[in-house]
Amino acid sequence: MKGIKLGKLFGIELRLNFSWFVFFLWVTFALGQEFAQQNTAWSPTTVYGIAAVTSILFFGSVLLHELSHSLVAKAYKLPVQSITLHLFGGVSQMDREPARAREELFIAGAGPLMSIVLGIIFGGIYLATKSISVLSTPAGWLAFINIFLAVLNLVPGFPLDGGRILRAALWGFTKDFRRSTKIAARAGQAIAGLLIMIGLFCIMSGNWMGLWYGLIGFYLLGMAKTSYQQVELQYMLRGLKVSNMSLEDLPQISGKLNIADFLNNYILGARNRHYMIVDDNMIRGVVSLNQLNALEEKTKIAKNLEDVMTPINNLKRIDPETEVIQALELMSQLNASQLPVVKNNELLGFIGRDDLLNYIRQRFEFGLQ
Questions:
Q1: CA angle at 154 for the pair 152 and 158, rounded to the nearest 5°
Q2: Count of alpha carbons within 13 Å of 209, Cβ hemisphere only?
Q3: Average pLDDT, integer, range 330-355
Q4: Rounded to an integer, what distance in angstroms lies between the CA atom of residue 108 and that of residue 160?
Q5: 305 falls in which pLDDT band (50, 70, 90)?
Q6: Cα–Cα dist 256/22, whole Å
Q7: pTM
Q8: Residue 329, helix vs strand vs coil
Q9: Which end of the chain, C or N, has fewer beta carbons within 10 A?
């Protein structure tokens, strides 16, 4: 999920999806309306200033919720790439599923536990500052919303935390991860369908909050389906290795060639997106058309391919015995579209993400296991 990079925390990239700004403005406006009714002596500037700060603290609470999941996952050696805040809250991007039911249970439970702790902390602030409305009003709302967030996430439907806890319990009991995911995903789809129906009923009754329930329902429905498809994909590709795939020989080009000349005279009509830099019968590196096209025109004119290539020794390489699903995960981590396949220091060829995805798509279409 793309967005604005905010930086890193504990080695995890933090992002804001553009939809977050819409939700932030909506929450701030709604809180402003609520706070104005509760505190009639406040000026409009005070009302919306406190509402904006409360919104930021709310999203900070969501971030801590997701960060709790991520830190427990990292403790179990699961790679966490990023946390993204968006219209429906937040999501942590982990490159693979937990290996054991116990890991799933603790990772899933960490988020709601953090929300409960935050609810207690804000509740304490509310009780301690009852006579100071500018502190007690936002603290009371933050206490309520964090407890509500914990309860909502504990609903037993995938991909909510409660659905993951349900999957962990089923997984521990049945020892069947695939079946447990299917049951939890079906529960998630049922809950999503219920939210959609509630939303429609509210809209027909004149309550436009139903639109929000419906949007959440459609979001959960899509996430539950996607999550289950990812597990099915893992089972479909289990045991399939890079050595079972056809490797690609990249076209060779000299690194002494000027970038502008190469782009103007060599690639017209070519299907290849990557080229291998070879000089004096030695492989020196790789360049991609996306990389070259992103350069400024003056750079293209002034520099040669060898000046911007990725040296072969800097390329992350994989062994032919690497499983296909692991190769895809590595490409995702590195944001790479191709990786060299090397065995005993011998370059066997390159494997591309597009080739893997096309292969996977064909297996899905033909129902191959």
A1: 100
A2: 4
A3: 73
A4: 9
A5: confident
A6: 50
A7: 0.70
A8: helix
A9: C
Q: What order do you get walking across the sheet with 12-16 strand by strand?
A: 4-9, 12-16, 80-86, 89-94
The two structure tokens encoding residue 96: 């693979």
Of 6 and 136, the structure prediction assigns the larger pLDDT to 136
Q: Helices 161-174 & 101-128, crossing angle to 10 degrees?
A: 150
Distances in Å between the Cα of 87 and the Cα atoms of 55, 117, 143, 194 are 13, 24, 21, 20
pLDDT of res. 147: 94
> Residue 324 pairs with which residues in a beta bridge?
none
The mean pLDDT value for 330-349 works out to 73
Q: Largest alpha-carbon pair distance within the chain?
A: 81
Q: Which helix (H) or strand (E) holds 157?
A: none
Percent pLDDT > 70 in the chain is 90
pLDDT of residue 88: 67
Name all domains of the chain by residue range, CATH numbers in brackets. Answer: 4-154 (no CATH), 242-366 (3.10.580.10)
Cα dist from 18 to 40, 66, 84, whole Å? 33, 18, 10
Question: Rounded to an integer, what distance in angstroms lies between the CA atom of residue 287 and that of residue 285?
Answer: 7
Length of the chain as a residue count = 369
CA proximity to 55, closest of 138, 146, 119, 124 = 138
Question: What is the C-alpha to C-alpha distance for residues 231 and 165, in angstroms, rounded to an integer?
Answer: 16
* Amino acid (one-letter) located at 62: V
Using CA atoms, how far apart are residues 215 and 162, in angstroms rounded to an integer?
A: 20
Q: Is the pLDDT of residue 86 over 80?
A: no
Question: Cβ distance 79 to 52 under 8 Å?
Answer: no
In this prediction, residues 163-178 reach a mean pLDDT of 89
Residue range 210-219: average pLDDT?
79
Dist CA 158 CA 193 (whole Å): 13
**Amino acid, single-letter form, for residue 66:** E
Q: What is the mean pLDDT of residues 237-255?
A: 75
